[in-house]
Structure formats: structure tokens, C-alpha cells
Design goal:
280 residues, two-stranded antiparallel ribbon, 2 helices
């Protein structure tokens, strides 16, 4: 039976009414346990610094870096025979990403990233026709790409070993410009590619060192996208309000665009990079 309250009426000689409330033993036990639990939780919460409480509830990670890359690409327009290649184009590019993590059940964590790079080269070919203009012998080609990524993921593990799994949607904006002594022309296109997202890290205890990998990729029909990152990091500053981590890594990226606005593009890129991560 649930705890109850017994009421006893007793009359004194002065004819005053005294009402006594008695809690039975079961109700007293339950009330005592609840009060003790409240005291324990209060001590634990009040004993945490405000920043520690914030770090338990949420975390914001901002990472910015520079890549030094070598890219091989093949581009065709209209048909496979109307094409040219850019071999071993070396370039540097910048990227930035922001992650927001929290403890709200069922709602995923979020990550956004942006990267852009230019592939410029002098092309020697028998002839390349674009927008009714034929470029023969040598002409200049500039292909710029902007990758914008939005990712929703869940943190499966969060200890010395952390594991994030989710889904990404990547927008690839490509702008192609061609020119020779007779003038030039250009065109741009947008492609949206979904991808599986995975990030795994191992934090070496006490040292501040981390080792991690980051993988994104998916293939839909003739479109293909894949990225593989491997990196090491060192947390060289660990303050109450902010942590700073330096990362060094390598990346391999491949993607294939098939017949989008009459463009076909195959790209293979290898990079080394350095980045700084700020954790609030």
C-alpha cells in the first residue's frame, strides 16, 4: 500500500482541538531517501565549476587549417573525346570546420565545414571545344572548387576512445574558366552529394596526444566521393575556458562527377596539412 497520513483528533481539558498528523514508517522512509538524494545531487552540482558544468552539457570545436596538395584531374565536356588532363597540379588551400556537441537525447550533434581550392594549369592539347569555342595548342585552364558540408552525427563513444557516426550532405560548387589569346569563357555547376561520416580518435592517457582518422564517402550511380584523413594531435593548452590542439595529418580525396551540366570530372588529390583546434 502507498504511504498515507493518519489523522488523530484528541480533546484536552481546555476544550481546544489538537490535530496530530502522523506519517507512517513507509512514507517516512521514502521521504528520507528522496531528501538524501537531493542533498547528494546538490553537493555534486554546487561542487562543479561553471565551466565544468558547461563542458558536460555542451562543447564547441572550431578548427582551421592549411593543406598542401597535389591533384590529378581529367575533365571532359559534352563527350569523352572532348577532354583534357591536369597532372600533378600543386596548390595550397584553407579550410575551416565547426562542431557543436551536446547531451540532449535523440538530437544529433552538428558539424559544418568549408574548403576551397583552385587548380590552374597551362594545357597542351590538340583541341578542346567549350561553349562553341575551340581551344587549340596551349590555353589556360582554371578550375575552382568550393566544398561546403553539413553533418549530423551521434557520439557513440566518448572516453579515451571516441567514435562519431553520422550522415553528411556535401555541396560541390565547381567553376571552370578557359582562355587563350583569342579570349575565353567559363561555366559553373552545383552538385549535392550525401555521404557517410565517421570519426574515431584515441587519446593517449596523460600525454595530451591524440591519434585519429576521419572518413567520408558514398557512391550513387556514377557519382562518387571519398575522403580519408589520418592525423596526430597534441593538446598544448588546457585552460578552464579553452583548450588548444595542434593537428598534423595526411588526406586522400577522390571524387567523380558524371554528366552534370555536360561536365565529367575525375579528381584524385593527396594532401598534407596542419590545423589548430579551439575547444570551448
Amino acid at each position: 500500500m502507498a504511504g498515507k497520513c493518519n489523522v488523530v483528533f484528541s480533546f484536552k481539558h481546555n476544550n481546544s482541538l489538537q490535530v496530530d498528523f502522523y506519517l507512517n514508517s513507509l512514507f517516512k522512509d521514502k521521504l528520507g531517501k528522496v531528501m538524501n538524494l537531493k542533498k547528494i545531487v546538490s553537493v555534486l552540482v554546487l561542487g562543479l565549476p561553471c565551466t565544468a558544468m558547461a563542458d558536460v552539457l555542451y562543447g564547441v570545436y572550431i578548427e582551421a587549417g592549411v593543406r598542401q596538395s597535389t591533384t590529378v584531374s581529367d575533365l571532359s565536356y559534352g563527350s569523352n573525346t572532348n577532354s583534357f588532363s591536369m597532372d600533378d597540379v600543386e596548390h595550397s588551400n584553407q579550410y575551416v570546420s565547426v562542431r557543436f556537441e551536446h547531451l540532449v537525447p535523440l538530437i544529433p550533434n552538428f558539424r559544418v565545414a568549408r574548403e576551397e581550392y583552385d587548380l590552374s594549369s597551362q594545357i597542351s592539347t590538340e583541341g578542346f571545344t567549350f561553349n562553341d569555342k575551340t581551344y587549340a595548342d596551349e590555353f589556360s585552364s582554371n578550375i575552382s572548387l568550393i566544398e561546403s558540408t553539413a553533418t549530423a552525427y551521434y557520439e557513440i563513444l566518448d572516453n579515451w576512445i571516441s567514435l562519431d557516426i553520422g550522415l553528411s550532405v556535401k555541396n560541390i560548387h565547381l567553376n571552370a574558366d578557359f582562355s587563350d589569346v583569342g579570349g575565353g569563357s567559363g561555366e559553373s555547376l552545383d552538385l549535392y552529394v550525401p555521404a557517410v561520416y565517421l570519426n574515431a580518435e584515441f587519446a593517449v592517457p596523460v600525454t595530451g596526444l591524440i591519434v585519429g582518422i576521419n572518413v567520408e564517402g558514398l557512391q550513387i550511380q556514377e557519382h562518387e566521393y571519398s575522403v580519408f584523413d589520418a592525423y596526430v594531435g597534441y593538446e598544448f593548452l588546457d585552460l578552464t575556458l579553452v583548450d588548444l590542439t595542434l593537428k598534423l595529418g595526411v588526406q586522400k580525396k577522390t571524387f567523380t562527377i558524371d554528366d552534370v551540366s555536360s561536365f565529367d570530372l575525375e579528381l584524385d588529390q593527396e594532401s598534407v596539412y596542419a590545423s589548430l583546434q579551439v575547444h570551448f
